[in-house]
Amino acid sequence: MTCSKSDEFLDDDLSVSDLNNVKCNRGKVFIVEPNGIDDTENLIQAFTDAKNSGKGSVVKLLEGDYFINFIEIREFHGSFIGAGKGKTIVTPITGLDCAALTSNNLFTVLISFIGGDIYMADMSLKTPHETLCADGGVLTGLLIFSDYSSQYISEKGYIKSFVNNVEFVGQWLDTDYNCYWGLIAYMNNNQYSLARSHIDITITNCFFDMLGIGADISSIKEGKLTLGTKNNGNVFSNCGWDDAQFCDNINVNISVVGNKFNIPSWFWGLYIDNFPYENRLNEPQHKRTLVKIESNEFNLVGGYNGLFFHDHRLISNPEENLPMFLSANNNKFNMSDDAYSGIWIYECKGPVISNNRFMGTGSLGIEVAPSGTADCYAEKGFIFGNDFSKSTFSIASIRLAEWTKNWTVIGGGNSNETIINLGIDNVIKEMHRRMNDKTFDNAHRQHPSFHNRFDEHQEKLLQH
């Protein structure tokens, strides 16, 4: 019996004892001791022995520093554990032959799991403060879970993973990061016309620091995607583009609960966008994607958006008529240093934004549909019970732009709450408001670089 059992960890009341129970039913334990030089072959041998021993086996790293080259593990059903964050430290060796991987259409990721059922816990993955690739390139990531790569397709076309209490730390080298992603759930193949993946993943109690993107869970066609649970959230800091992103996913359940997003100037916290990547097959949706964003803390120190949400398949695949359902509840948005907006959404149907708390100063608390097309409004949303009593916004607490229709907003009636309503058939109740006030329609003029940065972001995502 494998020890990942990730289905059990979708419960919002996950406790420390529940996490300890994941270590039950273990098979044989294979210990790898650090040698201080290069631990790659010893680690590969341990995984080989563990797989040969059967499901539920354990590869265990002791306290100390481990130095490794690229490692790929296929069809591992068991646990990969260390002695704790900051105690077991895994570091890439320098002079990595990144070109050998890219020439085979593989991403340059330090540790790759393909297929299987993995529980990984209690260690740190860190890069040294220097360039890692021999050709001067940037390492794609520290860890990836894939159901297939350009070299191998998993036996069941599926991978399940549960990552707990792992630290992902990169370095900034003058002009760029030496490792762009921390954790990736994605096929390990950078070719075109690719099928999306079947992946279940749960990430709890992890820490992401000094990376381009902390966690990237993208191009998935089926799965349960869980980033944090109640009392077992993750922490993101100093990530240069997004803290976490879910892009081009269909037919999935996304749960983001209990995390802390520390967002630096002009960047995003949580980015959710189903804009189809150009190098993916046009695969159909057969059920709505459900997105729960709950009990998270977004700290925007000049950051651009805390939560970004975009349901582009309403335009790219209108025949499906399966809009994503967004529920954003009980989150905290702490804003300072000219932060732009706590929540920024467009091209969507039926989102519910409720009981969130906005504190500090910024431009906007909630902005809906600042861009769009005439045949795809942001419509039938519901905003209620949000607390703006300890916030001051230079534009408005809530702004419903021209591309909104049939929204219902119920405010708390605080004297400093304001709303701009430029949409169609929106209903505003119990809120001090400025209706159709064009003098406040200057959000993007106050941030003239926004459109350029957004275009750059979309282009980068399409190249990913």
Describe the secondary-structure layout:
Elements lengths: L15 H6 L7 E4 L7 H14 L3 E5 L2 E5 L2 E11 L6 E5 L5 H5 L6 E18 L12 E8 L12 E11 L2 E2 L2 E2 L1 E7 L11 E8 L2 E3 L3 E5 L2 E8 L7 E3 L4 E6 L4 E6 L2 E4 L4 E6 L16 E5 L2 E5 L3 E6 L2 H4 L8 E5 L2 E15 L5 E3 L2 E12 L9 E2 L2 E3 L2 E14 L3 E2 L2 E3 L8 E3 L5 E3 L4 E2 L7 H4 L3 H14 L1
Parallel strand pairs: 1-2, 2-4, 3-5, 4-6, 5-6, 6-7, 6-8, 7-11, 8-12, 8-13, 11-14, 12-15, 13-16, 14-17, 15-18, 16-19, 17-20, 18-21, 19-22, 20-23, 21-24, 22-25, 23-25, 24-26, 25-27, 26-29, 27-30, 28-31, 29-32, 30-33, 32-34, 33-35
Antiparallel strand pairs: 9-10
In a few lines, what is going on in this structure?
Helices cover 10% and strands 45% of the residues.
Describe this structure in words.
With 464 residues, the protein is mainly beta. The protein has 2 domains: 1-210, no CATH class; 241-464, no CATH class. The protein has a 13-stranded parallel barrel with strand order 6-7-11-14-17-20-23-25-22-19-16-13-8. A two-stranded antiparallel ribbon has the order 9-10. α3 (98-102) links the parallel β5 (88-92) and β6. It is globular and about 65 Å long. Mean pLDDT is 88; it is low at 1-22 and 432-464.
